[in-house]
Amino acid sequence: MYSVRKLMTTMTNSLSLKHGLSLWCPQSGVLNRISRSSSISFGNFQRSYVVAPSSFANENREFVIVGGGNAAGYAARSFVEQGMADGRLCIVCKEAVVPYERPALTKGYLFPLDKKPARLPGFHTCVGSGGERQTTEWYKENGIEILYEDPVTAVDIEKHTLTTSSGKLLKYGSLIIATGCTAARFPEKIGGNLSGVHYIRDVADADSLIQSLGRAQKVVVVGGGYIGMEVAAAAAGWKLDTTVIFPGDQLMPRLFTPSLARRYEELYQQNGIKFLKGARIKNLEASSDGRVTAVKLENGYSIEADTVIVGIGAKPAVSAFEAVGLNNTVGGIQVDGLFRTSVPGVFAIGDVAAFPLKMYDRIARVEHVGHARQSAQHCVNTLLSGKTHLYDYLPFFYSRVFEYEGSARTVWWQFYGDNVGETIEIGNFDPKIVTFWLDSGKLKGVLLESGSPEEFQLLPKLARSQPPIDKAKLQSASSVEEALQIAQSSLTG
C-alpha cells in the first residue's frame, strides 16, 4: 500500500500522471519523507523591519507577502485581526484579482452555466472557512496595498529587496513567501501549448476552459487524480463525450484502494464517462489552424478531442527564491516549525513550504487549502506575537464532485491521517463506505465517503489519536455506522 508520502511524490519531467488539486478544502498535495539526519537547524531569529508611511510613497514596506493565493488571503486576515495591516502590509501577486478559494475552480466554477456555477466575488477568501468575504474593497478598507499582475522575479536577501517583473524595487522588513505552485505542463514539442489544451491553476485558466466546454463535443481529461476526477465530473454535467486517460490501472492509486477505485470508476461510468487505463501519451495532434484534434498514445491509438484538460500535478513556484534555501527532496522552500526560513525575517507558507510534519517526524510539502489556511495563520501569529509553539498539522485530503443540479448523486469524501499498513473496508459505497488503515495494531488513517457531519467530525480525532483497535472486531462490522462506533470506542477504551 502506498503511503501518503508517496501519494504526494513530486512531479517529474516525464509524462507519468499525477493528481493535482481538489471546493472549500483540497488540492492535491505533496507529502514526502526525508531522513531525520537531513533536517535543517535554524539559528536565532530576530525580527527586523523598515517602517513605511501609510501612503507607500517610497519603496519601503514593513511587511510583504509574495503570492495571491489562499495562503496570502488568510495571512492578510491575520494581519488585520492583530491590527498590523493598515499602511504596513503589501501583497505582490501575478493575478489580476484578490485572493480566492482556489479549490472552487475545479468544482463549482466548472458547472454548466444553467446549473448555478460559482463565480467571483462569491468565493473570495475567506468564505471557505466561514470567514468574511475579502473583496477588493475589503483590502482597501484595511489599508492593504496590492500590486497586481507583477510577480516577483528576484530577491536580494542581503539588501532585503524584491524585484518585480515590471522592474519595481521593494524593500521589505519581513517577507512571507506564498507563491504556491504552477501546473505541470506538457512540453510544447508534443503539443502542450495548442489551442484547446487547458491547465487549471487560476481563475483565468478556468474562464478559458469554460469557453472551450461551451462549444466542445469530445473532451479528454489527462490524469486520474484530483483534477482529473473533478474536471471529468464537471464535464459530465455539460453532457459531453468525456474520456479520462492515465498510465496506471486505477483512479487515485496513491490513496484509493483498488476496490474503492473500482467503485468510483463505476459511478463515473454511470455518468457517461469513459476510462482508458495504462495509457501513455506520445503527442497531441492539431488541425491546420493549431487547435487540438486528438491525443495520440505511444501504442499508436488516437482519441479524438477538441478539448484536452491536463491534470498531471504541480510544481512549487520557487525560481525567484533559491537564495532563501530550497529542499531538494520534497521541493519547496525549507522552513522550521514556525515557517521561518534560514534567512532572518523571511518566511514561507502554503504549498511552497517544506516544513516539519510534527506528528509523523518527517519533512513534508503539502498542496492543500487546509494547510494554506493554517500555515498562514500560524506564521503571522509567530511573526507578530513572538509565540513559539510549533506547527502541528494533521494531513487531510478530500474531494466533492457531481454537486450540480440534476446530478443523480453527490460525492464527497474525506481522508485524514497516513495511509500506511493494511486496509479494512466496510460498506457497499451506496449509500456510503469507509476505509481504515491499520499499522502495528493502531489506526493510522481513515477515509469516509458520504458521511454525516457528525461522522466526518470523528475522522480527525481518530487520525490524530492513532488509537489501538481490534482488527477482528472492526472487520466484523455490518455497517459503516457500526464500524465508526467501534473506532470511536477505541478512543476511550
Report on the architecture of this protein.
The protein has 493 residues and is an alpha/beta fold. It is built from ten helices and 25 strands. It has helices at residues 4-7, 70-81, 136-141, 203-215, 226-237, 258-270, 369-385, 453-465, 471-475, 480-490, and strands at 60-66, 89-92, 145-147, 152-156, 161-164, 169-177, 181-183, 197-198, 218-222, 241-245, 273-276, 281-286, 292-297, 302-304, 307-310, 314-316, 333-334, 346-348, 353-357, 362-364, 396-401, 411-417, 422-427, 433-439, 442-449. The protein is globular and about 60 Å long. The two termini are 28 Å apart.
Computed CA radius of gyration, to the nearest angstrom: 23 Å
* Sheet/helix structural class: alpha/beta
Q: Helical percent range?
A: 10-25%
Taking pLDDT < 50 over at least 5 consecutive residues as the criterion, the unreliable ranges are: 1-57
Strand content: 15-25%
Total helical segments: 10
Query: What summary fits the major beta sheet?
Result: 7 strands, mixed
Distance between the terminal alpha carbons, to the nearest Å? 28 Å
> What integer is the average pLDDT?
89
Number of strands: 25
What coarse outline follows from CA principal-axis ratios?
Answer: globular
Q: What is the assembly state of the chains in this entry?
A: single chain
